[in-house]
Specification:
By secondary structure, the chain is mainly alpha-helical. The protein is built from 27 helices and six strands. This is Nitric-oxide reductase large subunit.
Amino acid sequence: MEKRLWIIFGLVVGLSFLVLGYYGYEIYQKAPPIPDLVVDEKGEVVFTGKDIRNGQNAWQSMGGQEVGSIWGHGAYLAPDWTADWIHREALYILDRLAVKEAGGSYEKASEPQQAALRAQLQNSIRKNNFDSETRTLTISEERHSAIKDLSSYYKGLFMGDPDQMELRDAYSIPENAIKDPQRMRDMNAFFFWASWACVTERPGSDVTYTHNWPSDELVGNKATGDLLLWTGFSVIMLLFGTGVLVFYHAKSKEEELQAPVEDPLMRQKITPSMKAVEKYFWIVNLLILVQVAMGIITAHYGVEGNLLYGFPLADYLPYAASRTWHVQLAIYWIATAWLATGLYIGPSLTGKDPKFQKLGVNFLFIALLVIVVGSLAGQWMGIMQKLGYVNNFWLGHQGYEYVGLGRFWQCFLLVGLFIWLALMIRPLVPVFRQKTQEKHLLTMFLISCAAIALFFGAGLMWGRQTNLAIAEYWRWWVVHLWVEGFFEVFATVVAAFLFTRMGLLKIRTASVSVIFATVIFLSGGIIGTFHHLYFTGTPKAVMALGATFSALEVVPLVLIGFEAFENYRMSKVTDWLKDYKWPIYCLISVAFWNFLGAGIFGFLINPPIALYYMQGLNTTPLHGHTALFGVYGMLGIGLMLFVLRSLYRKQVWNDRLMGFAFWSINIGLMLMAVLSLLPVGLLQTVASVNEGMWYARSAEFLQQPLMDNLRWLRVIGDTVFSLGAVALFIFVFGLFRNRKKGQKISRKDKEMASAN
């Protein structure tokens, strides 16, 4: 059985990466071109390719995807700059044409005149005038005039025009976010190019480079038939995959649990390197508190602009910085909790440390601290415009969500992950030599560890001025494959290890289950990466593959209720398992959020036609919060509690405090979702369908009293959640304090005994 599953695993992974690589090559070939020159019909140079590339760096330096979004990827408070530019450009050109054709403004023209003007605009603006031989893009005189007008508008917005102060507050953009006029000119060039790709038809096609995204009737950006076709096909694949999995599950016979009389983990030896892992969890809890604080500040900027209850916090910590830290810290503490769990499990299998294992664990800890502090400081310096383009790329803010740390810190972290991989392999070598029944589980464990180290390296595949379409392709290798993919496999293996070591699962059952679950997940997960790339300048086939295979990612989640029930049943099979109540409850919570956050809220935005209208709206952070924290965060907390239960094996836990922490975190997350993120996202979707993406993200729409009230309602969920995070910190601190107290009492008893 295991051999057959390994063959299937190899085929799934191999073929999936062949497809991913082939269409990656296609993206390289068919990405929206960056012209060497942009000229008007008179031959006057508007922008150069260098201006556009430097503009990308200027955008990255101020926070990039942490201040509004480009092609729908990024933050949600400021507009999507491509949708905003396109609509403003269209209105300007229509007014210019209306003066020529109708003698007045576009708004005052009759309906037939407006229709004729729109047709004239679309014929001009959608035509691809890029010459691939000379690499020159020619634009009309009206468009050149529109660029001058828009450049002046954005300069005022980002550089401190007092007339735009109210709009800056609505977008939470600090005054003089861009301090250098040349940087501002460069960034306008980049905004123009990114918007040009959204409204210009591919050669030989009647859809734009971004598949007619964003929706805007003025420029003819409408949902295509392909969006509907592949949405329907994705639903069919979901139903098919669900049926197959339910049949397999019904056919499989559940194994009766045979729990041991005593907890086997209490008999395992705690090695020096295992004890050294304790400090990792201290940092995890500290980072959780800082991350939650940054989340509260970031959410508050949405209702009070650049202020925090009247204090001008944005002068010192702009929205771009608080959001960057909020997102980056989530990755850091979740990854640290998982890596620390791996470092604990490795030596526990043999009860021995390889030579210098403790030294390696301590060195890695220091390295991770340097990376966290250094990268966060560099990002702040970049956003505050204290670094040049090159220095910002290496030490500051790369501008990409989830992977915004500077390239130097990326390289440093990659080295750290390979050190971690070495520390994981060394304790397992003796176990492999024994050729025990655990070999299949250990093999998958090492594969997942190696993948965690290797796939973070995808973040090094783009350069400082790489075409955005290509950079997005590699960015999602990190965000989807590294974070959502192989960390998921690692977590599945670790959970199976824990249950086998506790005597709750037979090794063969765990091995088969883990390999099968990995095959099911990766069969949709690898090629499913493409569902993030529907509208980022990719070929049409990327949409077809992304829609088809991302639907399969949801399939395993339909049986999540069985997983939750099995975990709950495990917690009841014997008295000693009461000690593991909260770690197991965390796994039950993971199952719930997997179903709701990753499954329901994920599939809400996955189908092409849904994402066409929802990309870049609050439906995305709805999925992000409930999946990233609900699934990966709660799993990180659960793994931490498993390790702490073993480290503090003789302590009686404060169940009331831990219960308060657990329920407050989960209830707070739910309130955050249903009281604020979900209703705001759905109302934005209605606006996007009826008016266009530009309107759903505009200050005009988001600053309405109803929307303002819904954003304020998030305070309720944030408060409950924050109290839970504080309680968790106090709980972990209490374990450490009580252990120290116990050690002092023990030493005192020994001294008294020796004196007597």
